[in-house]
Amino acid sequence: MKQVPKLWHEKFDNVMLSNGFDINKCVYIKNMNTIYVIVCLYIDDMLICGSNANIIKTTKQILTSKFDMKDMGIAYVILEMKISKTYDGLILYQCHYNDKILNKFDKNEKNIAKTLIDVNLHLSKNIGDVISQVEYLNHWKSYVFYELY
Asked: Model confidence over 10-68: pLDDT tens digits?
């Protein structure tokens, strides 16, 4: 029984590869010029997003033909994160998870601390030079307390 999750994941990988997807850990991407679809897999939950409804529908048909699946429709919450669609794209909020944890330990309304911020401060998108992640990490290496895998 210990091999079942491994075998299921291998089967899922094979289905995705045979249908033209590239794999990056648990993210499956199929890019066809201006059309793309991305499938994010976490244990037995999936989030499918794409450039149009037809490619998403086709991907769902491929998956339901090979696996017993249930379509939950448009995702509003995934992995304890709220999903909000904006004009510029998608935003993930963890406030849903934070509220759940605070309620669990009965800390939601107690010990509220105010954080001062300049109300005239307006943040803008960074349009400066891109810094390499490796270069950035090497620069701050002495301050890292844990490793990322």
From this structure: 888 899 999 999 888 889 999 988 899 999 888 778 888 888 889 999 999 999 898 88
* Total-model pTM: 0.61
Nearest-Å Rg of the Cα atoms of the chain is: 21
Dihedrals φ, ψ of 77, to 5°?
A: -140, 135
Closest listed residue to residue 71, CA positions, set 89, 55, 56: 56
Strand partners, 29: 22, 38
Distance in angstroms (rounded) separating the CA atoms of residues 130 and 39: 28
Query: Could you give the C-alpha distances from 95 to 43, 98, 101, in angstroms and in order?
Result: 23, 5, 10
Within its chain, how far is the Cα of 100 from the centroid? 19
